[in-house]
């Protein structure tokens, strides 16, 4: 206890404590009556927490789930009779069905008894990531791999490279940490030490998506990366295998065994037809069969091309166009995906071009963030016109919640849904399908190649439209407006944690961009909004209060988000100093001072 007390005294004097000694740790465990099993579990969680990194699963989560019945053939072969009886391209589907039977058999054989690396190749936009997510989530994948594992413990993990994302999402270091984290999470017994004789009791299958999304460095290019991956399977031939996906770059086609490869764009014509029919199901038009043939003929295996064209058709139909008048337009559309992006870019109405560029910039804030991420969602996006009129609209004390014609001044779930639907329509008009909203309402790029296209082909136009515009200021202000609009409510523990993370991310990236100076109108407005959203819950001073990694105050049963303490945690010292000068009572008393020093100390570590 003397050693522990010494550490406490060092903290009081401002000295840093790098770690507790093993003697102090043992004393703490005895003092707190912690069993060895509990101590081991705590230690395991600390290792996993150290390996994890922000947004580790973001790319996987944002890949759209496969459309109904899409890719099901990969586990049960081609159901030719059902497909062909409804098809407009029967002769081609006979050939596709035979190819899919062969591929289905090769995939199942590799999963259940194969080795080395299986390669899923395909054109840009052919659906490789969607197929990889489908395989990762499908119960049949695990069932077949379990046959390969036999009596050994099966360890299954995945990693999806994402070039527009953080450094960890597009590097080998991120790949290694993610796979190691997921492996040790499934096999915590391997954490203390991975001995050679332990490997005979485990086998490992890793799915790695988007090798072409890896960011090459001077030391490691694509060739070096695939050699590293291949070395895993060569080192433990019977115990490690990989399923990888990539575009049809020569380095990947030359390196991987062509007998363990599928070419996706050659196998999805029936899936595309099912998708088109489902999306046009409510349309009874004599021209429907003709336009289906036209779309399939021009798609060239690029599933994304089909989805963008169908979205465009559905928008036009909502605007009153007849399907018969649209086949000529489909015929005029460019075949290549990047040329289609160019067509969509040029089709943005002149009145929408500035707001489209603003929207791209705000979405890019999320996709290129290095640490915390603030997402643009439909409800926050619904306030874009307000921001265009007055950038400080969300700070106003009389900030309005009501809708047009509503005198109740009370937002409801129904009204929020109406705002989101309105925002969805504006997004479609402004961005013409280059951006989309997920089922959760988050606004993202339609495909990971869209930001590439914007950077390479539209940079000058974007620069011109973004002069004087701060994407981070706009995004954080729209999120503030959303927070003020939402109905105050009693928050669950998970809601409180999510609120703390959001506020921490907002304060952190505004600090990074140096957006806040005295009198700190944004941060003061955010503090008021957070307090109101928590139904006015304030800080109840208690010696049991502590801080998590987001500067979120919590007690054994409760948690309160405070912009002031989060600012201390993320290093927004200018605001802390200004706040103390204008409100000296913020640090009156030892407990209040200790509460401030704690996040300052934690944030500096």
Overall shape: globular
| Count of discrete alpha- or pi-helical segments spanning 4 or more residues | 29
Strand content is 5-15%
Q: What is the residue-averaged pLDDT?
A: 79
Spatial order of the strands forming the largest sheet: 2-3-4-1-5
The separation of the N and C termini measures 24 Å
Q: Report the structural category.
A: alpha/beta
Instruction: Please give the largest β-sheet.
Output: 5 strands, parallel
Radius of gyration: 28 Å
The number of E-state strands comes to: 10
Question: What is the percent of helical residues?
Answer: 40-55%
Low-confidence stretches: 1-20, 78-85, 194-198, 402-409, 538-557
Explain what you see.
This protein is of the alpha/beta class and 605 residues long. A 5-stranded parallel sheet has the order 2-3-4-1-5, sandwiched between helices. A hairpin with a 5-residue loop joins strand 6 and strand 7. Helix 13 packs parallel to helix 15, helix 24 packs parallel to helix 26 and helix 27 crosses helix 28. It is globular, with a radius of gyration of 28 Å. The two termini are 24 Å apart. The N terminus is likely disordered.
Helices and strands, with pairings:
Layout: H1 2-12, H2 22-31, H3 36-51, H4 58-62, H5 73-76, H6 80-85, H7 90-113, E1 116-121, H8 128-137, H9 139-149, E2 153-160, H10 172-186, E3 202-209, H11 222-235, E4 240-246, H12 250-255, E5 261-263, H13 269-279, H14 288-299, H15 303-318, H16 327-332, H17 337-346, H18 353-367, H19 378-381, H20 384-389, H21 413-431, E6 435-437, E7 443-445, H22 449-457, H23 459-465, H24 471-485, H25 493-512, H26 521-533, E8 546-547, E9 553-554, E10 559-560, H27 563-570, H28 573-582, H29 590-604
Parallel strand pairs: 1-4, 1-5, 2-3, 3-4
Antiparallel strand pairs: 6-7, 8-9, 9-10
